[in-house]
Amino acid sequence: MLRRLLRVAIATSCIPLASLAAQSSVIGTVTDSVNHHPLAGAMIQLASDSAKIVKSATSDSLGGFRIDSLAPGSYIIGFFHPTLDSLGLDLLPRRLTVKPGEQHVDLSIPSAWTVVTQLCRGTPMKDSTGLLLGHVRDADTQLPRTGTVTVFWMELVIGEGGVKRNRQQIPIKTDDAGWFALCGLPSDAELTASAQAGEQESGTVPIHVPAGGLLMRDFQVSRADSTITVYEDSASTPGAARQVIATLRRGSARLSGVVRNDKGKPVANAEVSVPGTGVDGRTLQSGEYALAGLPAGTQTVEVRVIGFEPKRFSVDLTRNHLTTLDIVLDRPVQTLDAVQIFGKGNAAYAEFERRRRQGWGRFLTPVDIEKRHPIQVTDLFRTMPGVRLAPWRGAYAVVMRGNCRPTVYLNGMRMDDNAATELDQLANANEITGVEVYTAAGRPMEFWGNGCGSVVIWAGMLPR
Hints:
This protein is mostly beta strands. It has five helices and 34 strands.
């Protein structure tokens, strides 16, 4: 859908341009007030009231433009740029009286707040919410697709049973041109989003919507060339039907690049992966990596290595094509020495320490967690014996030996049966102060569950 700003037929005039008196010029700049930078490549059109004179110019890298050889008189002026189409805006042209000589006029895309208030008129707006908008496109042809964009996050709910985290999701359908706008998204929550159009879909990518502002994000979708289904081992629950843990999407897209540190030096042995595909690899001594067999579309790339905070990037992949993504790990972290905590502590910490001394399970103390620098809760389980991460709907599920999903407890409260697939939504990684993992045979009575085992997470309950 192209929202043309000047709906004026460009008529072929019989009057040669050379015969027009070169009396006036219009110069100016075009600014993108949403992203706060000059708007290059904008098409500026200026037309007389009778539409007999229509002139065009394209803004340069600094947003500047110039239109010469104008006769004084009344005109309308406007501009078009793909950004306007992405924002879903129809800007009305301005009336301009051209006088003899040189005249300056500035044009601009409205501010983020103006766009939000215009597109979200039916949604109560708060300073803590924002707007997500963009297009859904075919990853190979770039043609618009009609489909649905869904945003997920976890929300605290206070009820009779205490404080719980509920999984929230909002789907929004696109229009016929693949355009969508989703208002009222929380800016203080960790959001993820994905798109689907028929049998085509994207990966799940992290997004951050600025408070009182907007995020422009297009989603590219594709049909996977093949899928791999990972099942839960039914032996862990005798008599139960096998359940699907994950469906991994594969394709013919490729991704390569170089991972460097904050000083520009290559980083060796860094793990590079694309969630939801089961495809991962490690960088060479040169920092180079190469991944193949990836599905086309918008995907997330994760990079992890000891000594740096893990990072996530969004990338658009194309079928049978090599995409290059160079990565800089610019946040080095220090490995802390073990410390001892003295004092009485609280009851939860005393019980945590009692169970740890008994030695039946595997534990992560506040010091252990600090050393791992997790971005997501599931990051804490990556190197824990007896536990592994299985791709799950663009994220990860925690499974134990036999590919079974353990029972999950959060601050002593048992979660529902799907919690093992939603650990990253149950709590924020920076809130976690303790973790306990038990097999079915070695768990204490207070953390009894299914025939798989139990995972106990403490968020803000233990002293750091």
